[in-house]
Amino acid sequence: MEIYLPIAEVSLDVFVLLALGAGVGFLSGVFGVGGGFLLTPFLIFIGVPPAVAVASSANQLVGASVSGVLAHWKRGNVDFKMGAILLIGGFLGSLLGVWLFGILRRLGQIELVINLCFVLLLGTLGALMLVEGTRTLLRRRRVGMPRRKLHQHTWIHGLPLKMRFRRSKLYISALLPLGLGFLIGILSAIMGIGGGFVMVPAMIYLLGMPTMVVPGTSLFQIIFVAATVTVLQAINNRTVDAMLALVLLIGGVLGAQIGTRMGSRLRGDQLRIMLAVLVLGVAIKLAVDMTMTPEQLYSAAPVL
Amino acid sequence: MRRARQLFLAGALALAIGLPLGGGAARCEPLVADLTGHLIGITGAFTGASVVLFGATDGPGDVVVVVRGPEHDVAVRRKRRVAGIWVNAKEEVFTDVPSFYSIASSRPLDTVAPPAVLGFNEFGLDYLRLKLTRGTLREEDIPFRDALIETQQRERVFAETVGKIDFLGDRLFSTTLRFPSNVPVGTYEVKVFLIRNKAVVSAQTTPLVIAKVGLDAEIADFADRRAAIYGLVAVATAMVAGWLASVPFRNA
To answer: What is the ipTM of this complex?
Structure first.
């Protein structure tokens, strides 16, 4: 059954969109990542114009994250204070990102930048997470190995504006989550992602947050960053297809609820390895696509 | 489709009867044509549409129908390998490119008229006049022109083949104009030409409007005119949908 999308100006099969939403929602629930990094490329693949795919993904992320956060909140796995600080940074970053998006689009280089960002980010993160996750798994098996120090002091702990984050059991500089939020805000706007796949590992490795509170807190801040991006894209680029987002959401929220339940049954290190494999897979696929001789050397796009 | 055909027959009949009886004014009209509908409404279930064009001529001759969508500028970019990856390297911007182009003819175009006539009237994609923003096309721009046409054909907005025009006898004709599901909205120009002795002797232009109607039209219109509020509504809708969906799971 086909449905016409008013902003994308194409007709697409409802069931394909629902299935896509459900798959991405499931990931979002399990890992606390929005799944935008899969959603955007898939939407482009099935015929949604890239700019509309990016903006509408952000729109659907809002709903998917609300649904995810509610499930995590019940388990007390959301650090609202940390989320709020990440958010301030995220808001500022997304302002810059939407502006950059417009410039790159006019230059005809938006696709290249989107792809490069994905490959670099996903590749680095996936590799790091895989190494770290495997090491933890091996260490657990070998009893008697010297335990790592629980807490290591680096230059990061010397930064000013220290704050206590009770739920995350952390006492760190507020500049850290602020800067992280800012970077992810930029990525959100350019790539149409909530930034969860960057946020989640950064929270674990950079901020040192306990794995259990990471997905909930990440989703909590994604709600607001994605909401900001949606409104800004609607104003600046007129590329938000609310109809598309809604159909994706219907599939997505169901997937997210199931995913959240599965996620709470898995152990932290297993979760990391699974996410790492997924992230690396997408990175390799994108990298190969970029170096392969394209089927079409020429592309055409309306001038705005 | 059946209704369209009935309409066509009724219209054609009226034209056939009307022409000989209508007296002087009607007799002078060498070409009369109309569409079975002048508005194609795009709704949520839109999967493409077709409109029947029917008409009559005052005697034997060839008929060519050209459909053009509203014009816009299109940037064509060529990829080049830089450090192993493919990037958009060269860009040419074409102005006033029709957003839709299709053509139908009663006989193969090259037998209907000589190249000069085909070129003057832009009959067929080979003769479609495409200009660059920086001036006329040079030899090295030809690949860009070809690429533009090819991409538009892949998008189904430029017809790949010349459509057929059926004649009932040698005076009544009809053809079906087809539009894909991704047809651009706007005011279209449907031009009907009558060709005799390899020259255009008469032409008639009929407008055709393709517009979003119903809920989709309102959404698109709203998104355009009240962008900020639309964005906020889109966000609010998503939030409510997300919350609603988690309700059945609350006690699970």
So the answer is: 0.74
